Geranylgeranyl transferase type-2 subunit beta
Amino acid sequence: SSRSKLMSSTSSSKMAPLVADKHSRYILMAEKKKESFESVVMDHLRMNGAYWGLTTLDLLEKLGSVSEDEVVSWLMTCQHESGGFAGNTGHDPHILYTLSAVQILALFDKLNILDVEKVSTYVAGLQNENGSFSGDMWGEIDTRFSYIAIYCLSILKCLGKINVEKAVDYIMSCKNLDGGFGCTPGGESHAGQIFCCVGALAITGNLHRVDKDVLGWWLCERQKECGGLNGRPEKDPDVCYSWWVLSSLIMIDRVHWIDKAKLVKFILACQDLDNGGISDRPNDAVDIFHTYFGVAGLSLLEYPGVKAIDPAYALPVDVINRIIFTK
Ligand code: GRG
Ligand code: ZN
């Protein structure tokens, strides 16, 4: 079946395997010749980059090579008095960075150092009258922020602080006739936005409100001849959609509608076999973002040697189990 198809197809050609150690080394060095991952995080990658790099290392069972204390003490300097986190020390808080901070603390099993009341008050305070969420005090509204707010409050066990019903109704108002979702009502369907909406519906137990066959069809049409996935019709395939599309297909139980073996090949073909890292498409320059999405995609595809990742929370399954099933 699909697993044997995966085996035969990967062994029949001379495809290079996942060069996991090189990817770990690439992340630890993060394009500079700096000594430690921590200094690179502080200087260049900031909060989102830290989440991408650290999650990739954990999926490859290499999180132990990072100094947890250094990362966590830097991370806490990014917290603003409002409770939200910034992308780096001294910057302004935003819900995007607040999620990355919560995710990093979850990876290190350090959520207990958070002032949960403060962080959850910041996140809940971004909900608008119509149920939508703004990204920060300036007010831009996007279903990305709905997903992030629901995610943070779920992990912190504070969903009671927002109006979940209104939040879900707002997300449903961003659904299109093609089965997909956009960033606001009427916005074009895009795989990244679909991931956010489906993820928020999954976390709140509302997946029954998705038309799984219509959405599943739109999502599986993202696979191109080369095996890679694109983010919407007429666009080029890109490794990051191995995450946005595949996680959505898994959440709605339609992952068998794509050719998994062909997608594995596409991701593996985007590796830099010499220096590590994964690019958006074959022969492009690698970056930490696509390295994360390539490894996370392979995790969803059950590639050997990569830990399982949760499709709704985008963190290793063991991390999510530890949080959801305790206290
Ligand atoms: C926890 C994984 C995780 C995410 C947090 C920030 C966020 C929540 C989600 C972002 C969802 C999103 C909109 C992703 C799309 C990112 C992307 C590759 C955009 C590029 O769009 P275009 O139009 O590129 O520039 P295409 O591929 O369409 O040509
Ligand atoms: Zn991309």
